Amino acid sequence: MSDEEVRRVAEALDAVEQIANVEQRVRVKSQVMAAQAERNKEWSRERDELIRRLNAEEELSYRQIAARLDIKLSTVQAVFRGYKGSGTTRPKKSDAEG
Question: Model-level pTM?
Fold first, then answer.
């Protein structure tokens, strides 16, 4: 996505936040969140595949991948650790694991 496309999406989201009628604003926000939730799984899958490919085929380090894709290092690390979701949903270590 180009910087211009990102700017346009951000402006559209800003416009939603400016809806004066709170009920209408919440309704629209809910619609936007639902539409994005459907995309998140595919977007995440595509990102994860590219991260793995850059590591395997181009032998980029985690830091190099993060810099190239302009994402957090922890996101790259999470892909290789198999983490999904937020830290609050990750399985906790058992006492036996230390």
Answer: 0.70
C-alpha to C-alpha distance for 78 and 40, rounded to whole angstroms:
16
Cα distance between residue 74 and residue 90, in whole Å: 14
**CA–CA separation, 37 and 70 (whole Å):** 22
The vertex-89 CA angle with 87 and 93, nearest 5°, equals 80
pLDDT for 85: 65
CA–CA separation, 82 and 2 (whole Å): 29
Q: How far apart are CA 64 and CA 1, in angstroms?
A: 20
* C-alpha to C-alpha distance for 28 and 13, rounded to whole angstroms: 10
